[in-house]
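Q: Structure tokens for this one, please.
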Amino acid sequence: MCPHSSTQIHASTKQIDKQSTKPVEMRQNHPAPFEYRIMKNEPTGVGTASAGMSDEALRRMASIVALVTALVLVIVKVWAWFATGSISLLTAAADGLVDVLASSVTFAGVRYAARPADRGHRYGHGKAEAVAAFVQALLLAGAAIALGIESGQRLMYPEPLSQTGFGIWVIVLSSFAAVALVSVQTYVVARTRSTAIAADRAHYVTDVAVNIAVLAALLLDRYLGWMRADAAGALAISLYMLWNARGMATDALVQLLDRELDASERARIEAALTGCPGVSAVHDLRTRDGGDRVFVEFHLEVDGALTVAQGHEIADRAEKAVQRLFQASDVTAHVEPAGIQDQRLDDLVC
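A: Here is the predicted structure, written as tokens:
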């Protein structure tokens, strides 16, 4: 809903912290007449009272917990593989090793993405999380292909297993650890919308599925004597890992390639803008997900007889109306006289 307050226009813009609702004056030089850039709703590093942690702190905590958990699990699974000779346990161990590498990438990506905008990165560093997620997808796909080949060979030439009881206990305990970690990451993703943590969470959701398949294979081998069950379970796990890697890569590329927000989100933005007093029309709306915030740009048509200050006031209210739709956003309005005939992006895109 568009704010209706008639405030005095200054040579500065107001950055509004959505959590504190306290305006902070910032100096800003406008690059050209009628064009205004306002960065709003920046993450403030102050968490809600119920959570007691900021979004950035939650991202850091989740990445550290994931890294430590992945490292412990891969060591235990490698130990169990040596003890049992199970190819499905080897698959689980390899997936765990990918988790360690992926969590390391996430650990670095989350920290880099948390850096504030600087001279070389005026849009911020939010896409570092998408880069981390894409690297994770590549690692997972590579491991899936290699293990799929090994599983196929074991299907043709099965080998007996040993100490399957020990392997079963390892998988059961690993499953509990993975479920606990997924629960933590689910909460963090819901709070922070972190792409890297979401990709890391996808790894551990895969871990739960992997552990179930390994457990089924070991039980079938131990109690029914199905020697090929181990290799069949490992092959199924490899295919699932490959499918999961595809989904992770697709989600990361949405951010890296600056894909527009969904049509429903664009409709919400347009409704908020056209509902502002003084706005005649809106065109050339552009949006993208920058990882840590949403970027929105648009051309705002107003009465051509208005003064620069009056046009700026309308633009300021319109930008605030859009900003209120998102947790964190960077909104840019370009003011034009209503009915102007010029080359428009809307006419050029399909």
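A few notes: Confidence is low (pLDDT under 50) at residues 5-51. The radius of gyration is 26 Å.
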